[in-house]
User: What shape does this take?
Amino acid sequence: MGRFLTVMELETGPIAAGGGCVARAADGRVVFVRHALPGERVLATAYLALVATDVDPRVPADTAWHPVGALPPTAFDHESIIGSARERLRAKLSYTNLGFALAPATFTVNELREIYAAALGHPVSATNLQRILVRRGVIEATSEMVRPAAAGGRPATLYRFAGRGLRVTNPFAAFRPPPDCS
Assistant: This one.
């Protein structure tokens, strides 16, 4: 245990009443330490894996995908761990170009809006999202268009992320829910 703790020197802080802390390892992993019994510790390592919407990864037969807002009951403090991971994703979507890991190679602004709304947990304006991400140089229009659906409308421009590597685009930014959203 001593060797493991020397790797986890970066961030620590309380996560729940009753004891426990969150630590970020040197490689970026978030490690949660929960006090199960006096003098006893249980370590849980959480990895946040991002899967693009156009990918359907194979999972074992005893595993299923669940919407984060409708998870089945979890053991111990795993619900708070999942909540912490979602909050971290929300924050990173606000100030980085991390959306590239969730979106297909090309997409319409409306498709990207749906991805951001699902991750952020509140409605997102397609117009504002496009304006912000284009201004920051995060997304760029391609020369391709998507034909309108049977209901009609204008052809939608396809966009792509300007880069596929993680970078900070605005360290002070935050996507906030609209005032009428609770």
Observations:
- Residues 1-20 have pLDDT under 50 and may be disordered.
- Residues 1-47 form one domain.
